[in-house]
Amino acid sequence: MNQIVKNIIRFVVLVFIQVAILNNIQISGFLNPYMYILFILLLPFETPNWLLLVLSFFLGLSVDVFSNTLGMHASASVFMAYLRPYILNYLSVRDGYEQGTTPSILHYGFGWFFKYCLILVIAHHSFLFFIEVFSFSNLSETITRIILSTFFTLSLLITSQFLLFKK
């Protein structure tokens, strides 16, 4: 299947899952899973930075429209997309990334994918939750939300990798 069609389908499916199912899961306000960021994580390595930022903005804006969150997801998604090339450069494999591959467990293994996701999910969640609170009061509560939501989101992301990308 064409890479563009795959990404369009992935975009629509992830926004639907986020809006219809995951936005309704909030355990004591501390556990908020955000699986829609998988779209940004799985974009091909060759995606130009400007396109990455634009796609991330529209992804976050789509979630914002359905969640009534006034640009918080859009800004957090753009922040995550901005960091992505630097994180990929930091985690770069010895011979560089293969042309035509995507950042996934299938191509680069569990350890690499886990580190890649962990860094970007923490960045996304930190930005999102601090923007939501817009203060450093109740810092321990915000950090608890970041940690618990990161753990749950990472569990969903890695589970989806094992379900979708079987060898």
Automatic annotation (TrEMBL):
Record's GO cellular component terms: plasma membrane
Superkingdom of origin: Bacteria
GO biological process, any: regulation of cell shape
Keyword Nucleus found: no
NCBIfam families xref list: shape_MreD (TIGR03426)
Family the UniProt entry places it in: Belongs to the MreD family.
Name of the protein: Rod shape-determining protein MreD
Provenance organism: Labilibaculum euxinus
Taxonomy of the source species: Bacteria, Pseudomonadati, Bacteroidota, Bacteroidia, Marinilabiliales
